């Protein structure tokens, strides 16, 4: 049985806590939806912020909503070199001991002490998809990417939940190396 998944290329983005949204955009501010994302209830917001590291900044980083419990900036390794932040490869939400960043919005700024990561490559599985393919949460998978310069990626983390939709997420560095784009397919081979 072929185990084919859709690929989503994840550019740099930020998740903000409601407290930080209000510091950056004003008291009571609510993010507005630009477009829905592949995961149910998730969206790219119209709003952007500037993030500032020791060597440089990115002036328009897209916010993904809804608000999260903790603020987290997800960048590529190339991005981390460009702004001077030594971001470790981590699974989303695992920010303990990660570097911080200065975030600037139209109403204020906030310096977080942790939260900058390079997101570990992963596949979101709805529980039914994972069961059908014999995959468990946190399994490390081997995946073949299609694309002009196709490649095999190892240590792709399986993330299984009833609230997920089947989709693989890689960052722009990985996508560029493979010549892959959002909407391409990948095959789980181990």
UniProtKB/TrEMBL annotation:
It is an enzyme of class 2 (transferase). Coiled coil: none annotated. InterPro entries: PTAC (IPR008300). It catalyses: propanoyl-CoA + phosphate = propanoyl phosphate + CoA. Pfam families: PTAC. Keywords: Acyltransferase, Metal-binding, Transferase, Zinc. Belongs to the PduL family. One of its GO terms (molecular function) is acyltransferase activity. Signal peptide: none annotated. It comes from Paenibacillus wenxiniae. The keyword Zinc applies. Pathway: Polyol metabolism; 1,2-propanediol degradation. Its cofactor is Zn(2+). It comes from the Bacteria. This is Phosphate propanoyltransferase. Involved in 1,2-propanediol (1,2-PD) degradation by catalyzing the conversion of propanoyl-CoA to propanoyl-phosphate. Its EC number is 2.3.1.222.
């Amino acid at each position: 049985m072929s185990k084919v998944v859709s690929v989503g290329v994840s550019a740099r983005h930020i998740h903000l806590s409601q407290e930080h949204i209000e510091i950056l955009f004003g008291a009571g501010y609510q993010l507005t939806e630009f477009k829905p994302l592949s995961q149910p209830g998730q969206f790219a917001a119209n709003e952007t912020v500037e993030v500032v590291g020791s060597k440089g900044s990115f002036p328009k980083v897209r916010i993904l909503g809804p608000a999260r419990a903790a603020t987290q900036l997800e960048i590529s390794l190339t991005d981390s070199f460009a702004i001077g932040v030594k971001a470790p490869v981590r699974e989303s939400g695992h920010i303990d001991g990660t570097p911080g960043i200065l975030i600037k919005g139209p109403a204020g700024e906030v310096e977080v002490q942790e939260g900058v990561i390079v997101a570990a490559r992963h596949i979101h599985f709805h529980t039914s998809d994972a069961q059908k393919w014999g995959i468990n949460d946190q399994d490390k998978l081997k995946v073949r990417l299609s694309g002009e310069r196709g490649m095999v990626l190892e240590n792709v983390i399986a993330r299984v939940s009833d609230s997920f939709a089947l989709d693989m997420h890689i960052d722009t560095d990985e996508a560029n190396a493979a010549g892959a784009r959002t909407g391409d397919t990948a095959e789980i081979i181990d």
